[in-house]
Amino acid sequence: MTSFPDAARVALGDSQLRHNLRNATTTIRNKRAGVVAEVPDWEDLREAGRAIKADVMSRLDEYLLQFEASVQAAGGHVHWACDAAEANAIVLDVARSHGVTEVVKVKSLTTDEIELNDALAAGGVQAIETDFAELILQLDGDWSSHILVPAIHRNRTEIRDLFVRTIASDANCPTIPTSLPRSHGSTCARSSSTRGWA
Questions:
Q1: N or C: which end of the chain has fewer CB within 10 A?
Q2: Which helix (DSSP H) or strand (DSSP E) does residue 52 occupy?
């Protein structure tokens, strides 16, 4: 495994990567600054949000039980797990109980942390990402480079080339798909559609 200093040295030497990140972060910062400027009490709102988060974390046990009760009242079921292995096993069991070999998965940092996709794959179930950035990473066997913008290190041309290589049947596709393709055999013009929830 490459050490962080060695990996960082290689990344810093990649001029295209540095350009991609500079372009993306400049765009994000400018948009953020514009939105923040629209709200005169931005810092007060930010502090209120921080206080709410701190309160929830200090009483998380209560809120989780309240959440479970609400889910059960609506006819749902909440599964509890002690660790990543148990959580992954529960999800795999649910998938198997429905006889599926594919599941549609929404973006989740928790499932990234517990390596749910790998656990499902080992159990014969493929997780298909619905988040556009997560799909980009999944198609290329890449990993997230940012907690909120997972594919921030990729530019449009790289993403287009990836789609042409992996899921587009039309190699002359002139545009970048802007939504989740239906299948790996879809054309660039085809609109988004998921296969169902499991």
A1: N
A2: helix 42-58
CA gap 157, 127 in Å, rounded: 26
Dist. CA 115–CA 96, nearest whole Å: 18
- Compute CA 29 distance to the chain's CA centroid, rounded to the nearest angstrom: 21
Tally Cβ neighbours within 10 Å of residue 18.
13
pLDDT in tens, the chain (198 residues): 889 999 899 989 999 999 999 999 999 999 999 999 999 999 999 999 999 999 999 999 999 999 999 999 999 999 999 999 999 999 999 999 999 999 999 888 899 899 999 999 999 999 998 888 888 988 888 888 888 888 999 999 999 999 999 887 554 555 544 444 444 444 333 333 333 333
Stretch (H or E) spanning 11: helix 4-12
Q: Are 122 and 96 in contact (CB under 8 A)?
A: no
The pTM (predicted TM-score) of the whole model is 0.69
Identify the bridge partners of residue 128 per DSSP, sorted by sequence position.
Answer: 104
Phi, psi (deg, nearest 5) at residue 127: -95, 125
Length of the chain equals: 198
